[in-house]
TrEMBL record:
UniProt KW Nucleotidyltransferase keyword: no
Annotated protein name in UniProt: Putative sodium-coupled neutral amino acid transporter 11
Family matches, as InterPro entries: AA_transpt_TM
A Pfam family annotated for this UniProt entry: Aa_trans
Membrane spanning residue stretches: 14-36, 48-72, 92-112, 132-155, 161-179, 191-212
Predominant subcellular localization, coarse grouping: membrane
UniProt similarity note: Belongs to the amino acid/polyamine transporter 2 family.
Function recorded in the entry: Putative sodium-dependent amino acid/proton antiporter.
Lineage: superkingdom: Eukaryota
Record's GO cellular component terms: membrane
Location of the protein in the cell: Membrane
Membrane topology field: Multi-pass membrane protein
Organism of provenance: Oryctes borbonicus
The Amino acid transporter transmembrane domain, residue ranges: 10-210
């Protein structure tokens, strides 16, 4: 569909977009779980698994992102599936498959969260009753938060700038600066210092933009029919008549 600002995408929204991408690649909490699941785990095998996973995810993200924006340009929504017309049977199947994927992914994330809580708050193995209670609290709190909005873009932006960016850029680089010997402005530490500054800049600006424009941040279509879908429906109806 044509739009006056079809390719005018370099604006302030690039800051929360960086947060969204950081959130998409944030998997630090699964590190120990994945490492212990590797048969005969070693640094070499760990490097192969992580590099292959990240590269594959990057290719898929670029494929969907570029193809999606090239198709819908300025009409692109935070959730790309919102851009497709509701009478598109193929995309309805895609929505169903995406929902199934989320349903199957959530237990894995819940498992990691529960393990972190149990290891952090309890020194000894918890009872079965406590185990179920923690699980219920995690699922219940996630459900209450999820029903507060039907706009996926808002959730991704908030998680991106407030959690993903610090975890992906700031904390790892700060850990390296602290553990690596040498002056903080040495040649070996300059890249890590630059990553810290980049992460802090994105996090601060992203949070600022979110809170300043919080009343207008909810820009998803919320299941409404997009204008070009209405035009197509009207055209098809006119042709049929």
């Amino acid at each position: 569909p044509s739009h006056d600002n079809a390719w005018k995408f370099a604006n302030s929204d690039i800051v929360p977009a960086i947060g969204i991408m950081a959130f998409a690649f944030m998997c630090h909490h699964n590190t120990f779980l994945i490492y212990t699941s590797i048969q005969d785990a070693s640094q070499k095998r760990w490097d192969i698994v992580t590099h292959a996973s990240i590269v594959t995810s990057l290719l898929v993200a670029c494929l969907f992102g570029i193809a999606g924006y090239a198709t819908f340009t300025a009409y692109s929504q935070g959730d790309l599936l919102e851009n497709y017309c509701w009478d598109d049977d193929l995309m309805n199947i895609s929505r169903l498959l995406f929902s199934i994927t989320i349903l199957l992914t959530y237990p894995i994330e819940c498992f990691v969260t529960r393990e972190v809580i149990q290891n952090s708050l309890f020194s000894a193995p918890v009872s079965e009753r406590t185990h179920y209670l923690i699980t219920l609290c995690i699922v219940g709190s996630a459900y209450l938060i999820s029903i507060s909005t039907d706009c996926l873009g808002v959730v991704l932006e908030l998680n991106g700038v407030l959690a993903a960016v610090p975890l992906a850029y700031v904390l790892p680089a700060l850990s390296y600066l602290q553990l690596e010997e040498g002056f903080i402005l040495s040649r070996r530490k300059i890249p890590a210092l630059a990553v810290v500054m980049f992460g802090l800049t994105v996090a601060i600006l992203g949070a600022l933009f979110l809170f300043v424009d919080f009343s207008e941040i909810d820009t998803c279509s919320h299941g409404k029919i997009m204008p070009y879908c209405l035009n197509a429906t009207f055209t098809n109806h006119s042709v049929a008549v």
